[in-house]
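User: Fold both of these, please.

Assistant: Here is the first one.
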Amino acid sequence: MQRTLKNFSFADKFVMDKTIMVVDENHGIRSMISHTLVLEHYGVVSAGSAVEALEMIEAGMRPDLIIAEFDMERGGLDGADLARKIRSNPATYHLPVIIMASEYRLNREHEWKNAGATGCIVKPFTVNELLDSVRRATT
């Protein structure tokens, strides 16, 4: 489990109290999103698969938001499966989950909505789109 923190001022404390879990099999995407969030003074943990994310959550990690790739294959679970498992657990059902999906996957919107995801961000997305989604989901 990796937690990345950046120097922050007292004005940033409210944001720093927020921890975001980034879940994606692609290390480059996880790093880009994590770096962006750290620059905005969020705490970040990352997982390389939905299975790894669930293990972290089962071990007691309680992020304020989970951002998960829709199309993951490691361990046989994708982002919708992760959201579904989070929603089915009384200890974690309240955690917001944002699904990242390629534009061509939007036709499967019913899958992530039915799984209980809070929202979806379409790839490729801008830094502003990412940060707007994070702010909406964490306030």
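And the second sequence with its predicted structure:
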Amino acid sequence: MAVQLAPKAFDSLVERAVANIPGRFRARMRNLVIVVQPVGPSADLLGLYEGRPATERTTGDAPSDGPDRIRIFQRAHEEMARTPAELERIVTDTVWHEIGHYFGLSEREIHVAEERRERLRPLRRAARLAKSPRNR
């Protein structure tokens, strides 16, 4: 059974995912907008980066016609998720993936980085729990 959220609740998931991007990367994200849309060009597409990757820009480049854009497609995420926690994880992974494209990573490079993140996920969770005030 798919998880369904009101648009504002889904927007909040995306906002949290962006807020959890390490500051060293967020500080370098310029001229970029992230928008949520109900559906994408295909039913199984979770997100899409549109723009010119940061690695292909130079300081002498003329301003573009507008900001780069990351589109996140709500329904595809909801159809894939079976629980609210799983939905949040999928949204977070999609945001990371598309921001990787913004920074010029190829699909292969992103998949390598995603595998590394997945291996480190239990360690990060344990570190968060250790810092939790309840565990002190």
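Residues 22 and 42 are 30 Å apart (CA to CA).
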